[in-house]
Amino acid sequence: MKNELVLVIDFGGQYNQLIARRVRECHVYCEVIPYTQATAAEIQKRHPIGIIFTGGPNSVYEEGAPKIEREVFSLGIPVLGICYGAQLMAHVLGGTVKTAETREYGKTNTFFTPDCKLFSGLPQEAITWMSHTDYIAALPEGFRSTAHTADCPVAAMDCAEKNLYAMQYHPEVLHTENGTAMLKNFLYEVCGVSGDWTMGNYAQRAIEEIRTRVGDGKVLLALSGGVDSSVAAALLAKAVGSQLTCIFVDHGLMRKNEGDEVEAAFSKWDINFVRVNAQERFLSRLAGVNEPEKKRKIIGEEFIRVFEDEAKKIGRVDFLAQGTIYPDVIESGAGDAAVIKSHHNVGGLPDYVDFKEIIEPLRLLFKDEVRALGTELGLADYLVWRQPFPGPGLAIRILGEITAEKVAILQDADYIFREEVANAHLDRDIHQYFAVLTNMRSVGVMGDERTYDYTLALRGVTTTDFMTADFARIPYDLLQKVSSRIINEVGSINRIVYDITSKPPATIEWE
Ligand SMILES: Nc1ncnc2c1ncn2[C@@H]1O[C@H](COP(=O)(O)OP(=O)(O)OP(=O)(O)O)[C@@H](O)[C@H]1O
Ligand SMILES: O=c1[nH]c(=O)c2[nH+]cn([C@@H]3O[C@H](COP(=O)(O)O)[C@@H](O)[C@H]3O)c2[nH]1
Ligand SMILES: NC(=O)CC[C@H](N)C(=O)O
Ligand SMILES: [Mg+2]
């Protein structure tokens, strides 16, 4: 069965996948396509039930700014323009867009016209999230303004007769109050969707696509035992069964006992599972390396080399599969976005890779969607709800040079922290928590003697999508218990600090 389709047309905005994600939250299937492919003819061929234009960095009146054919507005398909998309709708249909005297950025008080379908059932005044310098100065014929702010006369507009709607603010961002409800109104009240899409459909579609792509070829999946690659393993196993081999690389930078635990868990699955013990290989390549991006690149490359070596043992393997998810892609600098850090599986990949194609069935999903999909596929709760653990492992939690001794110290300290968080039943409330071995030593006193040992940092964060995060308010009693256990049981650590920065300005990991 084919699902109702909404096309999201990409004009280069920052929140495009977030729009897609909100549409999925409303149980509607959608696809994001670049504006260059969005001709009226192409759109018509796909029979979408609605169209959404995203924001974008350009100004519509500039030479060479992204455009859309005028015919797109007369196909009889409802259109919602967001930010740049709103300005483009106004511009193409004969309105005027100008540079504003006061640019609006951030939370903005906004007033809505209640009889616009987008705002039906919602308060007439609310906070919206704005991010623009241009504004709609004159409406196109047949349109009316349906919302305004102190500085922006057209914060939204519509031409209900033609099912054309636009918003200057970003409804997809959580800072916009009722933003998702407005998108839902567009989908249900304007486009008339029935809401026929579920995570089950996503799984089905992904499985079919993998089958078509792979044919009778072989696939090697990089399996870490983490949430993302476990969900990918379940999908791939359903899609291609015994053509799949899962490779778990124990690079010696896993958490305490983790290598054995992953092996025990996946040996029970009905899949080809291989554990590669590559401790020596990784540690020797990392010896003497201090710089975070360099560590990441080395690990990214070494992972691939291990996979290539394993592939040779299986015979001809054309496909490498990974559990990459959307935040990995964005932070590694997708498209025009800035590189924050090179996730080993994206920006850390070497230039030459000995596989024909890379399969990443979760590449457009956010973490909480991956979890929902895992549950849908019948994965055990402990797998679905595991806290994430980065591919480079403890390498990016040991600041400065990595040595086997430091790895052992950090493993022991981190184990105690995790054990106490679990004992306090906070392991689902704190979304990621771990220890970091700083490269700093300081003076302490133990048993009346001077010590000069490492400072350990504890990090705990709460977040939904791992793109932004707040530090977790861990109870002092728990911190105290963890602190005294680590000092008493681990050795080489004489001082413990708790990281109280959010993301941004910090990131979750320290490197
Ligand atoms: N030790 C490993 N062995 C094999 N593949 C790995 C390993 N670590 C990471 N990978 C690959 O890199 C991808 C990205 O790692 P990442 O940590 O983001 O995801 P994950 O481990 O699957 O899930 P989680 O975010 O829950 O840790 C994984 O999905 C997997 O394909
Ligand atoms: O597989 C991964 N490979 C990487 O190179 C990597 N770097 C960060 N992370 C994880 O991503 C989330 C966001 O982390 P940051 O705030 O530190 O960027 C957090 O959950 C991090 O643990 C990684 N995962
Ligand atoms: N976020 C956007 O889409 C911005 C649109 C346009 N570049 C402006 O500044 O107004
Ligand atoms: Mg992981």
TrEMBL record:
Pathway note: Purine metabolism; GMP biosynthesis; GMP from XMP (L-Gln route): step 1/1
A Pfam family: GMP_synt_C
Active site: 83 (nucleophile), 170, 172
Amino acids binding ATP: 224-230
Cytoplasm is among the record's keywords: no
Enzyme type, top EC level: ligase
Keywords: ATP-binding, Glutamine amidotransferase, GMP biosynthesis, Ligase, Nucleotide-binding, Purine biosynthesis
Segments forming a coiled coil: none
Quaternary data: Homodimer.
Protein name, per record: GMP synthase [glutamine-hydrolyzing]
Biological classification of the source: Bacteria, Bacillati, Bacillota, Clostridia, Eubacteriales
Gene: guaA
